[in-house]
């Protein structure tokens, strides 16, 4: 941003820079420039004693008509005549005789910059150009404000007459330099001035619109609206003063152009004060801002009057204008001493604006003869505001990114307590949006995993060892659940409850992979001399309700459903059958054959809290590969033995399960059914014997 600023500043100053005028002292209406080098010093300001012919047009002048002289540039207001001092209204001619070198090779030109109302240029008695239409009375007079360049005759002796008329402005006469120079130099200088003012206007327009857009994006940033309004006021002043580039594009009547010049001047001061007040409200006086607003409002109402009245404010308002700038500078110094953010750049920028404004006021009142520089200093000032704004935006972005990172970390921390998947299924994107009573019904698979005989196992460990063990175990099974599109709803001591919302197959795959991970974990435990663990996993699929339970000071995400209770009971059945993975018939029916897993029916079992018994199925792939392979190879024999048991043919069942145990002595399910068959068979014999 700084590099861009300095490049633009360099281009801006390069457009401002121009060769200075050399002042030539006219004595008694005569100036000899025959020895002047226009190559070394091309611009000569014709200052000094011009012959003054009051109420006389150039073609009516007789050399003996007057012995009056007026030092130009200067208004004729207050000039002492025999009958009293002159006012602003009237018409007059100014004449000098000019001697140039006989051997000049350049085509010479006369440049007359904008005057208060209208003027005409005569050279050797011939009209060459001007601005507006001067005349002897208001009816013959047309006001206009613009610069003129006229080509001078190729002769060494010139009589130059300036005919000036004013019947509308408070001051009359010549208040800008009249300059003689080579024509090409004059053209280049005028073009350069217009380019400069066009560039100033473009920059002010762009910056103003930029801050206006920023305001609409952030209505709380009142300083952006302040700088927009100030830029707008300076823009209007730039296009309505100097070379008045507005008239290059639009034919604006003089009375509108004059009022636009004054209204932009009246409002630039309070708007600038308002901008700084919005930036540093603790350091600026609100009452002073209101005072300048009231003053500018009164002066703006005065623009409804004829120009002769409201132009009088040009003698009074500069005091308020400069006072406003001094007050801003004082208050900014206070902000600087208090180490307010960006006050250094703003203080420097305000100093430039104050210098530029003072120069322009003195130049406009003819106390000094320089050029308008306030718009240029304002552009530099506005660029400094862009840098300031850029820094503020960068700081805000940095803070926003830091805040976003904190929020992300906080959200990540919360997600470890309340899974993001849980929030997603509630239709929430952020835990802050969760409230009591939020709930949704879904069909999901519920997985319960529990460590066998953990109570007895944990009694052999210290509290720290218990936590270290559980965390080590959960670090292995948790990622498997997430990898299979599930999420852990809660930990219940050593038990894990997980939900699989998308595909029933996900839950079965997760259970098989969990058992595989536990086998690897047990091998590590064996290497360290620790006893192995066994985990039973139960799965059921059904409808459930996810929701937020608790009270306003303590809430918790939970799942309420008969399906959850059933899944928990099925996990308990794994202890009965000494099985690793048991699933409900509902889950088994909907599972895909493409998984490649092997199952065997266990039994219809009574579930606490349910009136009807439930079929449960064992997933054989949950065992060690060798055991799983043996069980798979005897699956058909197991099915026949179970069928005999269910037909109450206990003798056949006993024979079948006994053969299975011969092949697979560690088949806990066949052993359980063998024991049941024997008990049922003995009971049946006793009943027959009695």
Automatic annotation (TrEMBL):
GO biological process: cAMP biosynthetic process; intracellular signal transduction
Transmembrane regions listed in the UniProt entry: 199-217, 224-242, 262-278, 290-310, 316-333, 345-364, 370-393
Keywords: Membrane, TPR repeat, Transmembrane, Transmembrane helix
Gene3D superfamilies found in the cross-reference section: Nucleotide cyclase (3.30.70.1230)
Domain of life of the native organism: Bacteria
One Gene Ontology molecular-function label: adenylate cyclase activity
Alphabetical list of Pfam families matching this protein: 7TMR-DISM_7TM, Guanylate_cyc
Positions of the Guanylate cyclase domain: 445-571
Transmembrane helix in keyword set: yes
Positions annotated as TPR repeat: 634-667
Protein name: Adenylate/guanylate cyclase domain-containing protein
The species this protein was found in: Leptospira perdikensis
Taxonomy of the source species: Bacteria, Pseudomonadati, Spirochaetota, Spirochaetia, Leptospirales
């Amino acid at each position: 941003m700084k590099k861009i600023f300095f490049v633009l500043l360099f281009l801006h100053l390069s457009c401002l820079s121009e060769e200075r005028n050399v002042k030539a002292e006219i004595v008694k209406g005569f100036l000899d420039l025959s020895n002047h080098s226009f190559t070394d010093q091309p611009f000569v300001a014709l200052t000094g004693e011009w012959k003054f012919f009051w109420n006389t047009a150039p073609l009516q002048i007789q050399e003996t008509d007057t012995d009056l002289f007026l030092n130009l540039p200067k208004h004729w207001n207050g000039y002492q005549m025999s009958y009293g001092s002159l006012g602003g209204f009237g018409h007059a001619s100014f004449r000098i005789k000019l001697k140039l070198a006989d051997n000049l090779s350049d085509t010479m030109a006369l440049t007359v910059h904008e005057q208060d109302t209208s003027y005409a240029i005569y050279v050797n008695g011939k009209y060459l150009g001007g601005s507006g239409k001067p005349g002897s009375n208001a009816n013959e007079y047309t006001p206009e404000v613009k610069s003129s360049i006229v080509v001078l005759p190729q002769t060494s002796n010139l009589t130059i007459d300036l005919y000036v008329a004013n019947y509308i402005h408070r001051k009359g006469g010549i208040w800008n330099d009249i300059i003689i120079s080579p024509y090409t130099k004059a053209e280049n200088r005028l073009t350069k001035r217009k380019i400069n003012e066009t560039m100033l206007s473009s920059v002010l327009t762009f910056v103003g619109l930029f801050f206006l857009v920023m305001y609409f994006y952030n209505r709380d940033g009142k300083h952006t609206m302040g700088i927009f309004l100030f830029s707008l006021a300076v823009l209007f002043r730039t296009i309505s003063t100097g070379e008045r580039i507005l008239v290059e594009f639009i034919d604006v009547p003089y009375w509108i152009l004059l009022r636009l010049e004054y209204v932009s001047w009246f409002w630039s001061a309070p708007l600038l004060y308002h901008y700084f007040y919005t930036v540093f409200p603790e350091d600026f006086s609100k009452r002073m801002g209101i005072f300048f607003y009231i003053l500018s409002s009164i002066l703006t109402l005065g623009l409804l009057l004829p120009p002769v009245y409201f132009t009088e404010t040009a003698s009074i308002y500069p005091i308020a204008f400069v006072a406003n700038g001094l007050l801003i500078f004082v208050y900014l110094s206070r902000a600087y001493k208090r180490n307010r953010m960006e006050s250094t750049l703003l203080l420097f920028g305000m100093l430039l604006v104050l210098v530029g404004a003072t120069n322009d006021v003195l130049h406009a009142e003819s106390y000094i003869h320089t050029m308008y520089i306030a718009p240029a200093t304002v552009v530099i000032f506005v660029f400094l505001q862009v840098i300031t704004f850029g820094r503020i935006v960068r700081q805000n972005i940095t803070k926003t990114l830091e805040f976003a990172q904190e929020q992300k970390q906080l959200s990540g921390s919360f997600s470890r307590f309340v899974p993001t998947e849980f929030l997603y299924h509630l239709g929430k994107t952020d835990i802050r949006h969760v409230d009591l009573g939020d709930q949704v019904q879904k069909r999901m698979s519920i997985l319960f995993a529990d460590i066998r005989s953990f109570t007895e196992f944990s009694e052999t460990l210290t509290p720290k060892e218990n936590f270290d063990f559980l965390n080590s175990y959960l670090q292995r099974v948790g990622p498997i659940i997430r990898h299979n599109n599930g999420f852990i709803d809660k930990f219940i001591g050593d038990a894990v409850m997980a939900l699989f919302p998308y595909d029933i197959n996900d839950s079965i795959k997760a259970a098989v992979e969990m058992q595989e991970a536990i086998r690897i974990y047990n091998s590590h435990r064996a290497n360290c001399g620790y006893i192995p663990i066994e985990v039973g996993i139960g799965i059921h699929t059904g409808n459930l309700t996810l929701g937020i339970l608790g009270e306003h000071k303590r809430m918790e995400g939970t799942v309420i459903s008969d399906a959850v209770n059933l899944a928990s009971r099925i996990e308990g059945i794994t202890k009965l059958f000494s099985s690793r993975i048991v699933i409900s018939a509902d889950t088994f029916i909907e599972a895909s054959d493409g998984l490649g897993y092997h199952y065997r029916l266990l039994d219809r079992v009574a579930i606490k809290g349910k009136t009807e018994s439930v079929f449960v199925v064992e997933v054989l792939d949950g065992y060690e590969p060798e055991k799983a392979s043996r069980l798979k190879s005897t699956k058909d024999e197991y099915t026949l033995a179970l069928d005999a048991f269910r037909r109450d043919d206990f003798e056949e069942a006993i024979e079948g399960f006994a053969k299975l145990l011969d092949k697979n002595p560690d088949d806990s399910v066949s052993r359980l059914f063998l024991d049941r068959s024997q008990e049922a068979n003995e009971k049946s014999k006793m009943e027959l014997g009695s």
